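Lab notebook, design round three. We kept the backbone fixed and only want residue identities now. Task for the bench partner: fill in a sequence for the structure below.
Input C-alpha cells:
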C-alpha cells in the first residue's frame, strides 16, 4: 500500500506497528419483515482497515457507491477488506473510507466476522508527511 501511494514505509509503521486489533462477530437471524429492519445502520469504520468474513455466504453486506447501495456478493473462502476513517486520513484522502451497512433477509441467518486494525493510542494522527507536497496540501489537520 505504501509503495503504491509513494509513501514512506515509516509513515505507516510508526502509526500501526503497536496498534490495536479487535474483533466483532455478528449474527443476523431471519426476519419476517426485512424491509422494516436494518441489520446494521449505515456507517464507516473508525479503524484503519477492517477485514470481514461473511461466514455462511449469505448476502447482506452493502456498500454505498455513487449514492446507491450495492450488495457485496459473498464469495467462498474470501475476505473483504474495507478502508476505514483512519486510513483515509493517513493517505490524505487518496483512499476513501467505505460507507456500508448490513441488511437482514426473510429466510436465512447471516453471520459475519470483522477484524479491525487500528493505530496505537498515542500515535500522531494526520496525513502522512510523505504525501504532503507543495502541489498537494493536507486535507486533514493533525490532532
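Proposed sequence:
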Amino acid at each position: 500500500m505504501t509503495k503504491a501511494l509513494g509513501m514512506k514505509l515509516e509513515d505507516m509503521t510508526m502509526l500501526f506497528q503497536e496498534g490495536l486489533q479487535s474483533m466483532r462477530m455478528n449474527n443476523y437471524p431471519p426476519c419476517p419483515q426485512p424491509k422494516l429492519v436494518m441489520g446494521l445502520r449505515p456507517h464507516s469504520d473508525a479503524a484503519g482497515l477492517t477485514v470481514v468474513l461473511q461466514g455462511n455466504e449469505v448476502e447482506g453486506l452493502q456498500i454505498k457507491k455513487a449514492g446507491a447501495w450495492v450488495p457485496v456478493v459473498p464469495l467462498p473462502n474470501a475476505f473483504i477488506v474495507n478502508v476505514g476513517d483512519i486510513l483515509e486520513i493517513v493517505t490524505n484522502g487518496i483512499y476513501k473510507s467505505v460507507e456500508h451497512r448490513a441488511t437482514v433477509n426473510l429466510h436465512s441467518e447471516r453471520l459475519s466476522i470483522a477484524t479491525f486494525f487500528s493505530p496505537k493510542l498515542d500515535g500522531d494522527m494526520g496525513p502522512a508527511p510523505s504525501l504532503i507536497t507543495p502541489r498537494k496540501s493536507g486535507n486533514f489537520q493533525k490532532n
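Keep this in mind before ordering anything: Residues 2-120 form a domain with the Jelly Rolls fold (CATH 2.60.120.330).
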